[in-house]
Amino acid sequence: MSTAHRSIEPIDPRTAIEGPVLVLAPHSDDETLGCGATIALIADAMPVHVAYGADGRISPAGPDGKATPDAASLVKARAEEARDAMAMLGVPAEHLHFLAFPDSRLTAEQARLETAIADLLDRLRPRTVIAPFRHDQHPDHLAMHRAAVGILRARPDVRLLQYFVYYRYPLLAERDIRRAVAPRHCVAVNATPVRALKRRALECYRSQVQLYYPWQTRPVLVPTILDEHCADTEQFVMATPDLPDPDLFSVYSLRLRFNLRYGARVVRCKKAVAQFIPGTG
User: Which alpha helices (H) appear in 11-68, and where do they start and end?
Assistant: First the structure.
């Protein structure tokens, strides 16, 4: 079984995770990339809901990096893709909640995002919330994490699990932020029984895994990324929301702190270039 840490405690999600469960996804596909296998394993055992923060109108973006004139069709397509993917993993369409905030603008919408999620928690009363990792690089992911933490401070009875999507830090020695998290704060789910199902669910996101616009030279999610996210395990951080970074990581080195501050900018620049110049990703 491959994972970022071989000493991470394995869990059976059907017994270790208490439902109902609310998965917070900044964009449609993040939930499948980060915890699709876990969703598939628990969907028959407990209610699973997914809330999508952004409308997805700039992934893929136009040549200028902004939304295209027909972005509304992309928004509709991505919502349909989410319904198809979640149906494959066992989550019914009525359990999907599209908050439809502007893509890449969740930070600017932080207050409204938090209010929308708080309303969902009041209505659904989940026992577990699964949200992006606190250092998951993309600004929308960070905004979704902050919203979850801000709400859950007043709800200590709700457990928070953090999943990984953007865990590759090219400036780290091992290039994987998961390896820096102290194993005592992590759990792992054996994804092997549903790896193929997770991959098929990801293939439902046609706008992300295929060329959607004629000017693209490669899809947003290339096969190597899909393969990596369909590994034998899914790793989660299980720590109190306000745990300080020095306590979260095994070694809080100067190099790690530099990466946490500047690594996301490097990754975003590489992704922007790679979308239009083959071989630079």
Answer: 13-16, 30-42
